[in-house]
Design goal:
The protein has 187 residues and is of the alpha+beta class. It has five helices and ten strands, in the order ββαβαββββαβββαα.
């Protein structure tokens, strides 16, 4: 059974429909106060939020834009676009900072990059659905020396895109990616 990294929900700021400014104390708490729960329990218990490192990958002044194909498991996400590379933190990510280790693993597994600089830029905390009430994203802006490439080609398609291209598919972006794109266009 998969176990995922969680933090008590009360440690997060109130849900907000925009990217929440990074709180350094919360970032530190994630590595000190987090624990693992069986994923089925974490998916149903809103007293915890599952921590998701969510990386916006930039290379050569463009961003890696992905589209979920029908090969992915979650039918609700088929054909939606995402800017976020990331996923759950698992026990294998323990050893240093579990958030940074989970980010490192996801970047390697999903887009094959190993040489990068990651800057945490904010949190995504929503409560507009049962799924969002049990997840929280920590958003990283990742500048990659390596050109990202889609590693999970059976589930995703991906390519580098400028902001204008991303704007054209804005309505097809997942909600977290819309929040990140809105932030990007303001900075």
């Amino acid at each position: 059974m998969e176990h995922v990294y969680v933090l008590p929900a009360h440690r997060f700021p109130a849900a907000c429909s925009s990217l929440i400014e990074l709180e350094p104390t919360l970032l530190g708490a994630m590595s000190l106060e987090g624990s693992f729960l069986p994923r089925p329990q974490a998916e149903e218990d809103p007293s915890y939020r599952q921590i998701i490192p969510y990386a916006l990958v930039r290379h050569a002044q463009k961003f890696f834009l992905m589209r979920r194909t029908k090969g992915g498991g979650e039918a609700r996400l088929h054909n939606l676009y995402t800017l976020g590379v990331g996923g759950h933190i698992n026990p294998e990510d323990v050893g240093g900072n579990p958030v940074l280790e989970g980010l490192r693993r996801e970047l390697l597994e999903e887009v094959g990059i190993t040489r990068y600089k990651a800057e945490p830029v904010g949190f995504i905390v929503l409560d507009d659905s049962p799924v969002s009430r049990v997840h929280a994203g920590i958003v990283f802006l990742v500048d990659s020396e390596d050109e990202p490439r889609m590693m999970e080609t059976e589930k995703l398609e991906g390519h580098l895109a400028g902001l204008d291209t991303i704007q054209e598919v804005y309505g097809g972006l997942e909600s977290w990616s819309q929040l990140v794109f809105d932030w990007l266009t303001r900075v």
